[in-house]
């Protein structure tokens, strides 16, 4: 059975400068909001089929580019203008026939989008698109022939695309591209020879440099820093046996990361670098959901050597400045904060304090400013908020309520403002929405209904004073 698979997605393409400036001033004023509560399904590209789990949705500005299978072309890149404009159409049939090119890794650089696809002749290689068929092309056949270089971990740094890719002579190493064949080249052969170092978790640092993790000589994992010109510097290494490096996150000019070990009682060590030798910030039995807010790192963790379960923590990059924000649920069970999401100057997250069930909480980084934000389902049951996403001054999320299942909700961030959108799947047949992202004048997301399975939806989203107009 053929499936429509809304997969990864998009980005701002070709916005007029005046429109962009007007939009930014409105955003600064917090002027965007949903126009009503009714979302509309976009074109049913493959009627009557069920969708598998979708991929990541990435914010765009004027159009939405995504991967989909309409049952005739296989999975290919598509474009949509949402609830108005030209509608939804195939960008390009990269690989003719029903097999499809399986595009992935959509990453915006300027007014173009890079992605990885297989056209059936060159294997999986790097492509670029401006959202039109004419402006979609293969960037470079890095590994000649049908094998392909399999680009991964695409990221924009300084107006260029950096990624990991393999070729016959160097193995998998660090590459960069400006979108042309001539401007796409190997940055550095970190371990000369065909084995390669397999860089991953490429991350743009606050200092403008590229940070990434690479393997070395089969025994080590290394944190590396590159300015794209001189030789990359090794900042930290550890044995790859029984441990690893992960969770790179830039917080201002600092870069935090986690080193793990299965041999020690302490499973996760939080470290920080400002471009030099990393320092140990803290050790935790568990640590996850790292986010940046106001020059500090926030995360969910259980403390080393105490009886407290997982709670909300913060760090300024020093041991002394790494503290538990608040113990929401006393004892070893903990409130288990998850889905940490920044909206303005506050942090929203899901947690269970043992009395209200798992509900939506908010924090300004202080104990007194960490509060229950919305008790969607009163009592110990809770609504279990998921898919928390900040969209231009609004918080979108899914919540599960009696009689309605899991449906989309939205809040302006002010107390008492959380409210459901119109129900997409009637009764207890949850629509299970997620992947909220604004592009142009709509908030797109993925949700399920009984007739079509999981597909793309759009909610009109405008500057507040234009909600009664259809000005575009």
Automatic annotation (TrEMBL):
Region (Disordered): 404-429
Record-linked InterPro entries: ELWxxDGT_rpt (IPR030916)
Keyword vocabulary terms for this entry: Cell projection, Cilium, Flagellum, Signal
Signal peptide: 1-20
SUPFAM superfamilies in UniProt: YWTD domain
Full protein name: ELWxxDGT repeat protein
Organism: Archangium gephyra
């Amino acid at each position: 059975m053929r499936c429509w698979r809304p997969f990864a997605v998009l980005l701002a393409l070709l916005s007029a400068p005046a429109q962009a400036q007007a939009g930014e001033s409105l955003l600064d004023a917090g002027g965007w909001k949903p126009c009503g509560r009714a979302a509309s399904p976009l074109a049913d590209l493959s009627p009557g089929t069920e969708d598998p789990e979708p991929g990541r949705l990435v914010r765009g500005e004027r159009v939405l580019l995504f991967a989909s299978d309409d049952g005739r072309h296989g999975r290919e890149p598509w474009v949509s203008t949402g609830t108005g404009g030209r509608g939804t159409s195939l960008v390009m049939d990269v690989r003719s026939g029903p097999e499809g090119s399986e595009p992935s890794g959509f990453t915006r650089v300027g007014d173009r989008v890079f992605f990885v696809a297989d056209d059936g002749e060159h294997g999986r290689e790097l492509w670029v698109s401006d959202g039109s068929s004419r402006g979609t092309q293969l960037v470079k056949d890095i590994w000649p022939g049908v094998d392909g270089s399999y680009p991964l971990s695409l990221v924009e740094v300084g107006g260029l695309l950096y990624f990991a890719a393999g070729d016959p002579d160097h193995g998998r190493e660090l590459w960069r591209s400006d979108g042309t064949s001539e401007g796409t080249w190997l940055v550095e052969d970190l371990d000369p020879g065909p084995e390669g170092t397999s860089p991953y978790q490429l991350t743009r640092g606050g200092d403008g440099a590229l940070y990434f993790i690479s393997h070395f000589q089969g025994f080590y994992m290394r944190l590396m820093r590159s300015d794209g010109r001189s030789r990359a510097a090794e900042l930290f290494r550890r044995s790859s046996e029984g441990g690893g490096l992960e969770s790179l996150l830039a917080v201002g000019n600092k870069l935090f990361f986690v080193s793990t070990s299965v041999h020690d009682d302490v499973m996760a060590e939080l470290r920080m670098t400002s471009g030099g030798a990393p320092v140990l910030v803290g050790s935790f039995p568990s640590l996850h959901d790292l986010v940046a807010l106001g020059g500090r790192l926030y995360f969910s963790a259980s403390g080393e050597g105490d009886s407290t379960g997982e709670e909300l923590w913060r760090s300024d990059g020093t041991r002394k400045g790494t503290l538990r924000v608040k113990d929401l649920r006393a004892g070893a069970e903990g409130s288990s904060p998850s889905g940490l999401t920044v909206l303005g100057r506050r942090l929203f997250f899901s947690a269970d304090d043992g009395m209200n069930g798992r509900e939506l909480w908010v924090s300004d980084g202080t104990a007194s400013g960490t509060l229950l934000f919305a008790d969607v389902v009163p009592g110990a049951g809770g609504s279990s908020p998921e898919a928390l996403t900040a969209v231009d001054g609004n918080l979108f999320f899914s919540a599960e309520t009696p009689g309605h299942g899991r449906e989309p909700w939205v809040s302006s961030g002010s107390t008492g403002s959380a409210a459901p959108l119109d129900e997409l799947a009637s009764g207890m047949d949850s629509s299970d929405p997620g992947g909220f992202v604004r592009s142009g004048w709509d908030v797109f997301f993925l949700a399920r209904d009984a007739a079509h399975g999981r597909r793309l939806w759009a909610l009109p989203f405008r500057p507040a004073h234009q909600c009664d107009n259809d000005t575009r």
